[in-house]
Amino acid sequence: MTDKTDLIQPDRGQDAIAIHLVNKDNFEGWAKKLSAGQRAALAAQKFDGSGYQVAIVPDGDGWFAVGGVANPDELSSWCMAKLAETLPEGSYRRAEGEPGPALHGWQTGQYRFARYMDDDKATGPRVLLTKEVKKIDPAIAEARAVKLVCDLVNTPAEDMGPADLEAECEKLAKAHGGKLKTIKGDSLETDFPMVHAVGRAAARQHAPRLMHLTWARSGGKDKDPVLAIVGKGVTFDSGGLDVKSAAGMKLMKKDMGGAAHAIALAGLVMEARLPVRLHLIVPAVENAIAGNAFRPGDVLKSRQGLTVEIGNTDAEGRLILGDALTLASEQEPDFVIDFATLTGAARVALGPDLPALMTRRDETAEALVNAGKAHDDETWRLPLYEAYGEYLASDIADTNNAQSNGFAGASVAGLFLDKFVGDGIDWAHFDTFAWRPAPKPGRPKCGAAYGVRAAFHMLRARYAGE
């Protein structure tokens, strides 16, 4: 990550450059208060108050900045992101009012993944001041969570294998006083047979594993509800023996994006000290090709007891999630939420920006959708339509892992996962892309977090009443 200092700091009257936010409707009236020279400077920069425009205006021996927004009275997370991306290093404050939700995009707008580059030429930090001191720490925590997802997803598979995901879980456990248990390699075969089968063909240094982190704010008191967060950690997906094309494989370093989301969300839950007993479960594998790879037509046992015929080795993420969701269900959870880069069908239906959301309960879906709208992290609900479950029928096993038709692929994958979640458990599933193919202010082209902020604010409301 690129932060050399916290990019949001308390406003104690220190020197800072003013930022004025205007839109096309009020720009002319606002500009009338300026000098002729200042108006000329704005005209030279073709500034008219349109969204995401940025201008620098001379002011005596100094200068101030102007940003175009849709509505200066109702800012979004992204209203000041373009300013953060383009202004010089220094400290800034909004001239009329506070940044509010724009604190988020101010930070993510300065994200840069520079692990493999000479970063000496990187622009120094742009610090935003605010008098809303109580909002600073939560805003920093959320932006760091988003940047963590970006960092993990951006890292190539050779440096972000199962062992590296384990290291991230260890780091999280140490930071918050959690306990981590990891099962690796052939030790998975008995209790997590589908995780083992998918990951067994990988090279030794990328051996499969399952991480189970536990944490409780109250030190383990039984009164707090159990929250289980599960993330798909396929660190690279070749497709297995049903091998992907070169184009289809190009971005498969991001197939551990679900794990990245789950780790980031768990960190937010622990940092906020929500009154829950947390279980973070991350199955991590590389879906590789070798003589011992699982095959189309194989029948796998699962932790839950169901047998699964393999219709397609490229539908591997749902297999490892099946064992992980079974483990989550065994904790008697109040709520289970999982994240996975699961289906191309979800992207065809919703595009890259909207994660597909599937839930068993309408009220859970409504809470997540509303939290996403309120915090500029929208999601879209797709159905778990039971009739489509017939697409997973098998002649020789309890279920197939893949359908033979092209209908409702995201929902059918969700129905497969539903088989491994315990009866009556409140469960939500995010099918996310974890990648942004084109940049927008505050959201660079790279790994991306979709649904983390929506889920966190829903959990805060559910467990802390906030």
UniProtKB/TrEMBL annotation:
One of its GO terms (molecular function) is aminopeptidase activity. Residues 312-319 form the Cytosol aminopeptidase domain. It comes from the Bacteria. Keywords: Aminopeptidase, Hydrolase, Manganese, Protease. It holds the Pfam family Peptidase_M17_N_1. InterPro entries: Leucine_aapep/pepB, Macro_dom-like, Peptidase_M17_C, Peptidase_M17_N_1. PANTHER family: LEUCINE AMINOPEPTIDASE-RELATED, PEPTIDASE B. Belongs to the peptidase M17 family. This is Leucyl aminopeptidase family protein. It comes from Altererythrobacter arenosus.
